[in-house]
Amino acid sequence: MGKFRCSVHWKCLCGLLLVFVGIVGSQSIVECLPGYPGKLPFKLETGYVTVDNSELFYYFIESSGNPKEDPIFLWLTGGPGCSSFSGLVYELGPMEFDIENYVGGLPKLQPYEYAWTKTASIIFLDSPVGTGFSYSTTAEGWYSSDSKSASQAYQFLRKWMIAHPQYLALQLFIGGDSYSGIIVPQVTKYVVDEISFPFLGQIFCRTTQGYLIGSPATDSVIDENSKIVFSHRMALISDELYEAAKTSCNETYVNVDPSNTKCTATLAAIKKCIQDINTKDILEPKCASASPMYNPNENHRSVLEKPAEFILSPPRIPGLWCRNFNYAMSDWWSNDIQVQKALNVRPGTVLQWQRCNNSLAYTKDIPSVVYVHKELSTLGLEVLVECGDRDLVVPYVGTVNWITSLNLTVVNDWRPWFIDGQVAGYTKKYSEHGFCLTYTTIKGAGHTAPEYKRRECYEMFGRWIHYYPI
């Protein structure tokens, strides 16, 4: 099935280039990276784009397939505050850390086969400000929120595309996962709204095809309520506890009235049942957050003292392995001075890089984006919603709930999808007035799914982006 493309409105583009020249930050091509063997076999560009009083850092990897034809993605990692490098190296990109052979020092990188960049060009954006290598030039600029983050991501995309006109005619998608489920639909709406108003310049012409969200935070109430339902379905809480919660809490488990003692007592009992479960993947051990200051040569307490607060050194016993050790690799690597020089990071702008910055000055001012999905469902967009079925951070239960609330027509009912003859997950397809939403689970995956099942998610993405049935 062919892909729709449009011609660029050069008159509009030229006028806007005159307006924006000089305020696009900086960009450079990176040919080698410390820890990576030899010259990079893919095109990597890094740089900054000035938005308001902020300098937003990005990694751009051009498609290694057919970059003149393949679609282009703006990719936002969640948090809020998790660097897009996390999405690049642990989820979608063409390289990964050589974790199994790590013996200390600067972590090594190696090529990764199942990269989404084989069939799409992806801009990995550090957003909001304070994330990754993005920074503000003023004290006020460090403050951000859901609405500001979405606005700045849109402004970034607009300026980046103007500075890279060779990609303007490609199909454009907005993508992201986890907390970016709040941001991605808003950025998409900014883009399609621009298309509707010619005086804005039609930078995106009519190439905007849709959006992709993985394990997406969507509605604070729906997402939180779904954790109780999911915990019951996964046998983490008993039938009796679940029924007691449904009855005493009236199936609403957030913002509970403290005077409802039966509900609060039941929820307290449920909390005890799941508090030592790894919410990112209920099947993996729960460990402490990885720290870039961790020294594997120092002595540490026994794992038996407080197992939930223990992080392993390079794993020696497979049964005690923790995924957080994988994450620590990115902190050690990105804080290396030679790495930052290779990436052309501006010296002194970020004192300590963190995979996820939990100290952002950030306000969550948009509790739900279901209404945005509803508005977008009136347009002819292609949408993929995917999630791991072992994720307790944003359980699939809530995702199905809000998708159902859109009242779309089911065109392909629930069925398994396969890789190498084995069930890789389940999928369902909806359509309404040219709007097409594909919902897909990845069997055995956690939060977010590509971190756990990279090959499966690669196959899923490749089929969807080329309009093949998943």
Automatic annotation (TrEMBL):
<protein>
    <recommendedName>
        <fullName>Serine carboxypeptidase-like 18</fullName>
    </recommendedName>
</protein>
<dbReference type="InterPro" id="IPR001563">
    <property type="entry name" value="Peptidase_S10"/>
</dbReference>
<dbReference type="GO" id="GO:0016747">
    <property type="term" value="F:acyltransferase activity, transferring groups other than amino-acyl groups"/>
</dbReference>
<dbReference type="GO" id="GO:0019748">
    <property type="term" value="P:secondary metabolic process"/>
</dbReference>
<comment type="similarity">
    <text>Belongs to the peptidase S10 family.</text>
</comment>
<dbReference type="InterPro" id="IPR029058">
    <property type="entry name" value="AB_hydrolase_fold"/>
</dbReference>
<dbReference type="Pfam" id="PF00450">
    <property type="entry name" value="Peptidase_S10"/>
</dbReference>
<keyword id="KW-0732">Signal</keyword>
<dbReference type="GO" id="GO:0004185">
    <property type="term" value="F:serine-type carboxypeptidase activity"/>
</dbReference>
<dbReference type="GO" id="GO:0006508">
    <property type="term" value="P:proteolysis"/>
</dbReference>
<feature type="signal peptide">
    <location>
        <begin position="1"/>
        <end position="26"/>
    </location>
</feature>
